[in-house]
Design brief:
The structure holds two protein chains of two kinds.
Chain A (H helix, E strand, L loop, with lengths): L1 H17 L1 H38 L5 E6 L7 H16 L4 E17 L2 E9 L11 E5 L9 E4 H7 L6 E4 L2 E10 L12 E5 L1 H9 L3 E11 L5 H8 L12 E6 H8 L1 H31 L1 H13 L4 H35 L15 H28 L2 H5 L11 H8 L4 H10 L3 H33 L7 H43 L1 H9 L4 H34 L11 H27 L3 H5 L3
Parallel strand pairs in A: 3-8, 5-7
Antiparallel strand pairs in A: 1-9, 1-10, 2-3, 2-9, 4-7, 5-8, 6-7
Helix pairs in contact in A: 1-10, 2-8, 2-10, 2-11, 8-11, 8-15, 8-16, 9-11, 10-11, 13-14, 14-18, 15-16, 15-18, 15-19, 16-17, 16-19, 18-19
Chain B lengths: L2 E12 L6 E12 L3 E5 L6 H8 L7 E6 L2 E2 L5 H11 E5 L10 H11 L4 H14 L15 H13 L5 E5 L7 H16 L3 E5 L3 H4 L4 E6 L2 E7 L6 H9 L6
Parallel strand pairs in B: 3-8, 3-9, 6-7, 7-8
Antiparallel strand pairs in B: 1-2, 1-4, 4-5, 9-10
Helix pairs in contact in B: 3-4, 3-5, 5-6
Classes of the chains: A alpha+beta, B alpha/beta.
Chain lengths: 612, 247
């Protein structure tokens, strides 16, 4: 067994050294994929970790009971009284060990950056609370007989104020007593409305300025925070709201609040994860293309190994070790890069509580490693098993198979009198349909992402030019910053996918040039010019590009339709922009493909004719 | 007689592991219009390289090549390609048909490259395939043809533009004896029709088709023998041995 593993290990190591170029290219693309996935996962985790720290430090709630009602709607008083009774029932429910509130909420407005923002003032009697003791980061907490407000941290950061300054609420100045952080509300401005804490005395003054009661929040701690979901499930039916009223009441667990608390970082992390998955899929195409180019050599090698007595099991083990080594290195490097870059990205968040600490669980590491291995196995296992399944003699005789029948398209091209290089190119394009499809698959994602990026650009331009609604100025600006980040990721991913697609196209074209070298030389021997052979090779590869455009543009538009719900303004991609994509992508593709074609065309004919 | 091909002091050296190898070493050669010349010699003597140099498939390191009286050794790859489509027909040992094209399309390719109308090129290609008794295989790709059929298609392709000279490199090297006989018959017909032919071969039967036999050794032409029609193979072989027997 050990001897068998040693033989397999030696074979794997020799193969990696024999074809270092493809192994390095595979490693590079796979590392980009694992790096992006690792980055997404660790950014995602960093927000949760920061929230957990704040939740622990503030004795955060396990279950929150929220009641909101429009102040001017008739019948609310009865609803509120009913909900207050429900709240008292919850306080006495089994498993509840501590209670915070109920805290009454007043609705009003605050001046922010020259505009008005919606404001909630939570009324708290001065003192300490068993649940949700906001963590004061500047100044002091509410004191008896002292007029003023304590600002939620995000609001203070947006206003650029600290203790001792004043803020304008309902048109009147209020002194800032302090700044505090809590998990009971998301950070302004991405979480709205803005929040301040006030004493009952200050609340009376605010009522006098026109602020009205909009509801309350009751906070509970349970014996075990992990029971929160079960507690909510057991009590939720009792809080069905009246369908004829716009008043609402709902129970929420701390996990649900945490998940909603960092929408910006979740969106960025989600975009990164989606990008990582797309790049991983493209890496399958790269692996398949690289392996397909060496398919006959691989199969011959397997045949040789079988001929000298290496068992199929040892061969499969050697292949697993070979690809496993590449996957392992890609995972380690990718995750390292991800962890290194994650703090910089997490720090741009306006919702995160405190300093982000990116982390990855072993499960997440295993997921990234598993994806890397899966990508390689999907892309590379076919020739190996073909070689193992074939008889030894037929494996040894494996070589490029010439075409048996001319395709219909090329027959048609010949009949309608297309130029000779085009006809020759069309003939060659159908010689390797597998490579054409693999190549097209890679490019399709690139094209789709370009379309998404274009749509996102138009949509964000609309967002930037649209006037903010009253009360949303600061939050709209923060959303704009977030979308700029997403746009940067989408554009970056599109460029990366196009670059990787171009690398794939270059590899496929190089293999096509190698496989078609003899035919190209034969054409030159009977009078075809180097230019004509270059055109023919480019045409032979353009099918993949055409397929990618046909599939990629609708795919991109479809993806955009899924994305544009929510806060993004609805917009389509202009026909002109799509036409530009349909023109520029093939031109770039042709330029990339022409490199190996020109290299081949510049070589003397005679050595190519003897090429087998 | 007018010289169709003329080579002066032609040299081609290849890099090898130990020392450079002179594959063609100061070769002087004239092939006249309507003449059939065979080049024979042992394997590796440089005869195929000489043919490649004369057809522009390889570049000489030194010397001059004239085709139909014009200096061509300095031509670009493109100009060589245009010259080949007009004036030179090639036949190779490995056939070198374009895999993706049918037999008929392979034959008409040089004519189309020369700018002939498609219909005219197709008609000429079909006539040639008829003449070479392979017309019934016109619609098949090379992979579906036998070795003899492929070489007939290759000969038809070489002839379609009525070239000044047909150059054949070991044209029977990959054929069985029956197909070899057929191809020899074809070359004899071409010789009788006064088509200028330059044949490179190590097969005395092929060489015996020629009017003149050149022998090469270590890259140099070391002798030539004039052959009459029906020269017995023994005489050809003797010509190879008796290098002093010059015309």
């Amino acid at each position: 067994m050990i001897a068998s593993a040693r033989i397999s290990g030696r074979l794997a190591s020799r193969n990696l050294r024999r074809w270092p170029g493809p192994a390095l290219l595979l490693l590079l693309t796979l590392t980009i994929a694992t790096g992006t996935l690792g980055l997404g996962l660790s950014v995602y985790g960093s927000a949760d970790a920061a929230w957990d720290r704040a939740w622990t430090a503030t004795d955060g709630f396990h279950v929150a009971f929220n009641v909101y009602h429009p102040p001017d709607e008739a019948g609310n008083d009865a609803f509120v009284q009913k909900m207050e009774r429900r709240g008292r029932e919850l306080v006495g429910a089994d498993g509840v060990v501590a209670v915070g509130g109920p805290w009454t909420h007043l609705y009003g407005s605050i001046d922010v950056a020259g505009g008005l923002e919606d404001l909630t003032a939570e009324i708290r009697p001065p003192g300490r609370y068993a649940v949700d003791q906001p963590l004061v980061t500047n100044g002091r907490w509410l004191r008896p007989g002292e007029d003023g407000v304590v600002l939620e941290g995000g609001l203070a950061a947006t206003l650029g104020v600290e203790a001792g300054d004043t803020v304008t609420i309902q048109g009147e100045p209020f002194p800032v007593l302090g700044v505090a952080t809590t998990v009971s509300r998301g950070r302004f401005p991405l979480a709205r409305p803005a929040q301040v804490w006030v004493t009952p005395q200050t609340a009376e003054r605010m009522r006098g300025l026109g602020m009205t009661v909009e509801g309350f929040e009751l906070q509970l701690r349970l014996r075990d925070p992990n029971d929160a979901a079960a507690f909510v499930a057991a009590h939720r039916p009792a809080f069905r709201t009246d369908p004829h009223s716009s008043a609402i009441a709902f129970l929420e667990t701390w996990e649900e609040r945490r998940a909603d608390s960092h929408s910006d970082i979740d969106t960025v992390a989600g975009t990164l994860l989606a990008a990582g998955i797309l790049i991983a899929i493209l890496t399958i195409a790269t692996a398949a293309v690289l392996v397909a180019g060496r398919m006959s050599e691989r199969i011959r090698q397997v045949g040789t190994l079988k001929a000298v007595g290496v068992t199929p099991r040892q061969i499969v083990l050697a292949l697993l070790l070979e690809y496993g080594a590449v996957a392992l290195v890609a995972t380690a490097v990718g995750i390292g890069i991800g962890l290194l870059l994650a703090p910089a990205i997490a720090n741009t968040s306006v919702t995160i509580l405190g300093t982000p600490q990116p982390r990855l669980s072993w499960t997440q590491v295993a997921i990234v490693g598993g994806v890397a291995l899966l990508v390689l196995l999907i892309g590379t296992v076919r020739p190996a098993f073909r070689g193992v399944r074939r008889s030894t003699v037929s494996s040894l005789a494996s070589g490029a198979r010439p075409p048996r029948r001319p395709g219909q398209l090329s027959r048609w091209a010949s009949r309608v009198g297309l130029p000779i290089p085009t006809v020759l190119g069309l003939r060659s394009s159908w010689r390797r349909p597998g490579r054409l499809v693999t190549n097209a698959a890679g490019l399709t994602f690139g094209v789709a992402m370009i379309v998404v990026a274009l749509a996102l650009r138009d949509s964000l331009n609309l967002l930037n030019t649209a006037a903010s609604e009253p009360g949303h100025t600061a939050s709209d600006a923060a959303v704009g910053v977030l979308y700029d980040q997403i746009r940067a990721i989408v554009v970056g991913t599109a460029l990366l996918l196009v670059a990787l697609g171009s690398i794939n196209a270059f590899i496929v074209a190089s293999f096509a040039a190698r496989d078609g070298a003899r035919s190209q030389a034969a054409i030159r021997a009977v009078g075809g010019t180097p230019r004509q052979t270059v055109i023919s090779l480019i045409v032979s590869q353009l099918g993949a590009c055409a397929l990618a455009l046909v599939l990629g543009i609708p795919l991109g538009l479809g993806l955009w339709t899924l994305m544009e719900g929510g806060d993004l303004p609805e917009t389509g991609v202009s026909v002109l922009a799509l036409l530009l994509v349909a023109v520029i992508v093939p031109l770039v593709f042709a330029a990339v493909v022409s490199v190996p074609a020109r290299r081949l065309a510049n070589r003397p004919v005679a050595p190519l004719l003897s090429y087998e | 007689m007018k010289a169709v091909i003329e080579a002066r002091d032609l040299v081609r050296t290849f890099d090898a592991d130990e020392a450079p190898v002179r594959a063609v070493d100061q070769v002087d050669l004239i092939v006249e219009e309507g003449e059939t010349v065979s080049v024979m010699g042992p394997s590796g003597c440089g005869k195929s390289t000489l043919l490649h140099l004369l057809g522009g498939l390889e570049r000489p390191d030194a010397g001059e090549i004239l085709i139909d009286g014009s200096r061509v050794d300095g031509l670009s790859e493109t100009d060589w390609a245009i010259l080949r489509r007009r004036s030179i027909g090639f036949v190779f040992q490995a056939f070198n048909l374009v895999d993706e094209l049918t037999a008929l399309e392979n034959v008409e390719l040089p004519a189309l490259l020369l700018g002939e109308p498609r219909g005219q090129a197709r008609r000429k290609a079909l006539e040639l395939l008829e003449r070479l008794r392979v017309a019934e295989r016109a619609g098949h790709l090379p992979d579906r043809l036998s070795g003899g059929e492929r070489q007939r298609v290759a000969v038809a392709r070489a002839l379609i533009n009525e070239p000044l000279v047909v150059m054949a490199d070991e044209p029977t090297g990959n054929l069985d004896s029956r197909a070899t006989g057929d191809i020899l018959g074809l070359f004899a017909e071409l010789r009788d029709a006064r088509q200028t032919l330059l044949l490179v071969t190590h097969d005395a039967r092929v060489a015996s088709v020629a009017d003149r036999l050149l022998t090469m050794r270590d890259g140099a032409v070391v002798g030539q023998t004039k052959l009459d029609a029906g020269t017995p193979i023994e005489r050809v072989l003797a010509g190879l041995v008796d290098l002093g027997d010059t015309a």
